[in-house]
Amino acid sequence: VLLTLLALTLLVLVSPRAKAADNVIAMSYATMTVNQVIVLSSAQKAGGNFQLTVQAKDGGGRGPPNYPSDVANLTLQYYNSSGQLIATSTSNNSTTFGETTFRTYTLNSANCGGSSSQVAYVKVGLTGNDGGYWAGNAGTNFKNPKLTFTPSGGTASSNLIYNPEFGVYGTYASNSAPSGWTNSTGTWGGNTHPQVL
């Protein structure tokens, strides 16, 4: 029992800590991308299919007919060991203005730009914006991203993404960054950057 309690305590101490609602990233009014790099194993370099899914919804603000809906675009970029981009797979999507529930968006990708053995890592990208260009974080809301790999004739892996809950370390603040994630603006929080809600 003592060992179990010690193990649970250590798990809490080394896991991302966040307030209960820290599982949504809200975009702002410029088009921006949140990213995570996944290094491939030797088994994944042997070839197969990657599937990226995420739940997303419109973030509010202004919308049609005068402004477009928010986008919820998914990207997988394949890089070699020299850091050169080999291939890109994308899925371009529009959310439904005014929706209150999340929908699942999916990108399936088997095209690594040639031989999978040349791919060192995959960069996952979730791109969103506020189509109405409303001040603040009224852009696309993303949660629960999942990347799986299925070898030819095999079974899908568990989620390869680290921290799919967008948890933050330490005490949450409006400019907190989710552990393991970067974004195209280089900053978190405020009216012009992604924010963890």
Question: What characteristics describe this protein?
Answer:
mainly beta, 197 residues, 2 helices, five-stranded antiparallel beta sheet, globular
Outline the structure in words.
By secondary structure, the chain is mostly beta strands. 9% of the residues lie in helices and 33% in strands. It contains 2 helices and 10 strands. It has helices at residues 2-14, 42-45, and strands spanning 25-26, 32-39, 48-57, 72-79, 85-91, 103-109, 121-128, 141-151, 182-183, 195-196. The strands form 2 sheets. Strands 6-3-8-1-10 form a 5-stranded antiparallel β-sheet. The chain has a 5-stranded antiparallel β-sheet with strand order 5-4-7-2-9, with no helix packed on it. The termini are far apart.
Overall structural class, as computed from helix and strand content, comes to mainly beta
Largest sheet, in brief, is:
5 strands, antiparallel
Task: Please provide the ordered H/E string of secondary-structure elements.
Answer: HEEHEEEEEEEE
Q: Give the N-terminus to C-terminus distance in angstroms.
A: 36 Å
Radius of gyration: 18 Å
Q: Which percent range describes the beta-strand content?
A: 25-35%
Mean pLDDT across the residues is 86
Individual helix count: 2
Shape: globular
> What is the spatial order of strands in the main beta sheet?
6-3-8-1-10
